[in-house]
Each structure stands twice: as structure tokens, then as C-alpha cells.
Amino acid sequence: MSSILDETRIEAFAGQIVTDVGATLGTALVTIGDRLGLYRAMADAQPVSAAELAARTSTHERYVREWLNAQAAGGYVTYDAECDRYVLPAEHAFVLADEQSPVALAGMFQSAAAAFEGRERVVERFRSGDGLGWHEHHHDLFDGTGRAFGANYRANLVAEWLPALDGVVERLTAGGYVADVGCGHGVATILMAQAFPASTFVGYDYHLASIEAARAAAAEAGVEDRVSFEVARADDYPGGGYDLIAFFDSLHDLGDPVGAAARASSALAPDGTCLIVEPFAGDSIAENLTPLGRSYYGFSTLVCTPGSLSQEGRAGLGTQAGERRLTEVLKAGGFTRVRRAAETPFNLVLEAKR
Prior knowledge:
By secondary structure, this protein is α/β, with parallel strands linked by helices. It has 14 helices and nine strands. Strands 5-4-3-6-7-9-8 form a seven-stranded mixed sheet, with helices on both faces. The longest helix is centred in the N-terminal third of the chain and has 30 residues, at 7-36. One of its GO terms (molecular function) is methyltransferase activity. It is an enzyme of class 2 (transferase). InterPro entries: Methyltranfer_dom, SAM-binding_MTase, SAM-dependent_MTases_sf, WH-like_DNA-bd_sf, WH_DNA-bd_sf, WHD_Rv2258c.
């Protein structure tokens, strides 16, 4: 075997496998720490013992110590052997313990764990070619996605993305009419409503449980007088004359994205704008073979592509469609001008006009 195979490469790949198994188990451990408030209880960045952390969170010390050791081995917390104390660095707390942080990523782990839950059904879909609808997944997928996307939207939507669109901020400030298609839990819709009190917003999603969650969130935010959420598909929602129609990380999930683009094009007011926020991707597979691309392809295989294949049209764009392919979809739906208005490390932001 040694004369045929490179033993160094074998050892390196075996090491990668060990790292990946640890990361896989780490996803479950992060969701446990998030749910039990362990990160939040360490957010002061001060040394804490396992017993102290257990007391703060009303949990069992033996479990907490093992969890802390796994966190230390993964580099999430630091460990001081001399005093037998653990520290969650302030920078890590900003990511894991502060839900209002622009880089609050605990929800991403929640989504990943929920996607993993559906793997047995995805195995069967690999064989049959059938789809697996969004509604068929564990509810943590819906909650985690809303949390993870929400952090990004809070950081960028009002401050960067909307100002990058031609004339949109002015129209919303004066009082516009906005549709959020595939709104999920309504995070982006509510953020826009809070920023533009003269405008009216409606969110559409086929998933009833998400619409109910969005309605509750709007009431909690105090914007339910200007925000409504309704069950509807992306190609048959009611109304017209919208100044802005937005697809926040939803276009690639649709079975018929061209049909959704055509509906948006026909529903816009004269000189209205369509905003499309999608996962960041290059136009070629090779460009997307990165750590971020790995995560996106993983979610795409387990959630997004099966979701599209469960719908009429079965386009299966996937999370790494890229600007060129998205532009083709939008133009096939009737838009004549499409441009990249903004981007982040996580997102492509496109503006489409008729």
C-alpha cells in the first residue's frame, strides 16, 4: 500500500476527519450551551469554575465540567489549569452570548443541528429524487434561521442594503408599500417597519407556523398596525403597486424562482424595485470551495435543494447559485436591469428593475 498511496496524505486526511467529527459533535454542544444559558452566564469574560457555572445556570456540575472541557478543547473557552477556571473571551461572548450582536451566530448552530435531524429523510430523497419541504423539518430550523439571519439583517439591511438601492430609502421615508416574499419569522420585515414608520409592510410565506411566529413578533415589536403577515406562495400573493418587493435568502429555496420573479415584476409599482438578498457565491463551483461555501453547500444539500425539489417547478437553484445564474432567473421573470448593489462576506445583494 505504501508504494501506491501517500502515507503523509493519509495521515493528514485522517487528522482532518478527527477535526470534523469534533466539529460535528461541537454543534450539538453549542446548542446545549445556548439553550441552557451557559454562554450567557460566562459573558462577563471572568474566570469561572465548573461548580460556579453550574450554580449560575441551575445545572449539574459533572455535565457542566465535561461540556467546558469540550469547549476548551475546541478553542471556544480558555482553561487555566493552575486555578481550574474557564473563561469565555469577550470576543467569543459577542458571537455566542449577545443576541443583538451583528455577528450573533448561535442560531446558525441551531439551524445546523436541525438540518442534521432530517438526514434520514434526505437519504431517502437521494434515492427517490423527491423533495423535502421546509415545513417537514424540526422547528429549530425555523427558529435558528431567523436568529442567524436576523443578526446579519440588523447589521446591514437599514444601514447598508436599502441605501444602496436607487431611490428606495426616499420612497420608504415618504411612505411606501413593501412586500417581503418568503418572510419566514418576519425579522427583516419588522426591521424595515421600525426604520420607516410612514410605510406599510406585508410578509408572505407558505409556512403557517412561520407566519404565526411573525405575527407574534410584530405585536411584540409594536408594529402590527403597519405590518401584516399572510400565508401565500411566492408566485400567487395578492395585491400590486408595491414600491419594494424583497426576497431575503428565499429565492433559491423556491421551486419556480422564475415564476416568483415574474409575479414580483408584475406586482411592482412603476419604477418599483426588487431586492434580492442571497448567500454569497461565485459563479463557478471552484470559487465556492471555501469554508463558507462548505457550510452553504451543506445546508443546500440537507435543506434548500430538497425544499425546492418539493415544489412545483423543482428548479433546485441551491444556496450557491451565484450572481450570473440569479440574474438569468430575474431576467427570465421580466426584469430588464439587474445589478449587484452591495455585498457582505455572507451575502450577495441584487437590485432588479423592470
